[in-house]
Write a structure and sequence with these properties.
metal-binding; oxidoreductase; 2-oxoglutarate and Fe(II)-dependent oxygenase superfamily protein; 467 residues; 2 domains; IPNS-like_sf; binds 2-oxoglutaric acid
């Protein structure tokens, strides 16, 4: 057991000859490899029992032998003696072994603050070259890596979602694929959506430029009328969490009506910003409208059903630029980039920069919850069903719970929320109810429904979020 180690400690499995004990005062053995996300997650999959040995019995350590106190003892020793990456890997593995210990208690008990501030770099230049560059874009703070590995541990597999080709002439088959995707997952990808790769790249670049401005500049455009900047922790999508808020910052851009109240950064600071965002809004709205007509077909309705209903008269169509910081305050229990939530409206079209982090939970009431990764596909947009569509379809189509976990890297994404005209009444569709399956929700005006949802999640003044 760990407290019987008497001067011996476990090291990274790559360096450990089988069944060898390493004296604590030995110099760090780790010559760091180019490490990647895969290596980071490998910390989690390798169990302490594979490479931790007792000097008393020379028997492999059994995970079940570890108590929380024993693990803490070992980690306190390790914090003083190991280099950060080795320490981090043992911390991560030990946490895995101590099933009963809460993750946050490690942070409060261990005095390893300075260590956690160190940046894990590529210490040994022999580990990377031009042809084998480091796979992480920048050095990463070890506490961020740890946060990432905690989240990796919570994840299991990547979700295989259908890819819908919006340019297909076979609209009925496409609608059937969408129906299956909405019943099974509430999520799917779209390709050939009419947004050129160049525009997708540009919108992410311009978004990054905005979020790189000093916070005082960004605050000059603080959210008003549901348009503008929201800072970190200003919103908590899962109000049941004790954390102070979600770590993302964001910027809302609303519909392009004549008297729209959008706020724009100064042309001097960001000359192409407004034109890029306006072009994106126009194109993504057009793609979203195509998806809505396919959804109507998928529900055995006329393609223009939602138009005729008035849902798309003056749709509440908002772009939300999102920036998730690399860092996560590890003293905050359960801080997410975006905590668990479902979207409120009809559908969301999401563009990401390829950095992972988005996860879905298909069975929200099943415990323990299973969270699955939604990988990005270059050039594709991710589409998900929102609560309003779930109400319309009497829960035939799922509005799936999702969240963004820290990825150990900065992440940028652009959500486009396509929600019904504010006066549209959302009421169970006839094709989705019967005597044996009556409507589950009463009819509701679109903006009343949305407003109530914003009221619950905004940590700042709700007036700023009014539509
Ligand atoms: O950034 C993402 O990947 C997801 C964003 C999201 O879930 C939201 O804004 O509702």
């Amino acid at each position: 057991m760990l407290q019987r180690m008497n001067g011996y400690t476990n090291v990274h499995p790559m360096q450990l000859p089988s069944r060898t004990a390493i004296p604590l005062n030995a110099p760090p053995l780790l010559s760091c490899r180019c490490f990647s996300r895969t290596t980071a997650s490998a910390f989690n999959t390798s169990s302490i029992q594979q490479h931790s040995r007792t000097n008393a019995s020379d028997e492999p350590q059994k995970a079940s032998d570890l108590t929380f106190q024993q693990a803490i003892q070992s980690l306190q020793v390790g914090a003083k003696t190991m280099n950060p990456l080795t320490y981090l890997s043992s911390l991560s593995r030990t946490m895995e072994c101590c099933k009963n210990a809460s993750e946050s208690s490690f942070f409060t008990i261990l005095d390893h603050r300075c260590l956690m501030e160190q940046r894990v770099k590529f210490w040994d230049s022999s580990c990377c070259s031009k042809s084998c560059p480091p796979s992480l874009r920048q050095p990463i703070r070890s506490k961020t890596l740890l946060a990432h590995s905690i989240n990796q541990r919570k994840m299991s597999q990547a979700l295989q979602l259908p890819i819908i080709d919006l340019s297909s002439d076979d609209r009925l088959s496409t609608a059937n694929l969408i129906r299956q995707a909405c019943v099974d997952h509430g999520f799917f990808y779209i390709v050939n959506h009419g947004l050129e790769e160049e525009l997708l790249k540009k919108v992410l670049e311009q978004s990054k430029m905005f979020f790189s401005l000093p916070v005082e500049e960004k605050m000059k455009l603080a959210v008003k009328n549901h348009r503008g900047y929201t800072g970190m922790y200003q919103e908590k999508l899962d109000p049941s969490l004790s954390a102070k808020g979600d770590s993302k910052e964001s910027f809302y851009i609303g519909p392009q009506t004549e008297n729209h109240l959008n706020q724009w950064p100064s042309e001097e600071d960001l000359p192409s910003w407004r034109s890029t965002m306006e072009a994106y809004h126009k194109k993504v709205l057009s793609a979203g409208t195509k998806v809505i007509s396919l959804i109507a077909l998928a529900l055995n309705l006329d393609e223009d059903f939602f138009e005729k209903l008035g849902a798309l008269n003056d749709p509440l169509a908002f772009i939300r630029l999102l920036h998730y910081p690399e860092d996560m305050d590890s003293t905050e229990e359960e801080t997410y980039g975006a905590s668990a939530h479902s979207d409120y409206g009809m559908i969301t079209l999401l563009l990401t920069d390829g950095v992972p982090g988005l996860q879905v939970c298909r069975e929200k009431s099943k415990q323990p919850q299973l969270w699955e990764d939604v990988p990005s596909i270059s050039g594709a947009l991710i589409v998900n069903i929102g609560d309003m569509m779930e109400r319309w379809t009497n829960c035939l189509f799922r509005s799936t719970l999702h969240r963004v976990v820290p990825a150990g890297e900065e992440r940028y994404s652009v959500a486009f929320f396509l929600d019904a005209d504010k006066d549209c009444i959302v009421e169970c569709l006839e094709s989705c109810c019967s005597e044996s399956c009556p409507p589950r929700f009463p009819p509701i005006r679109s903006s009343d429904y949305l407003q109530e949802r914003f009221r619950v999640t905004a940590t700042a003044s709700i007036e700023d979020y009014l539509l």
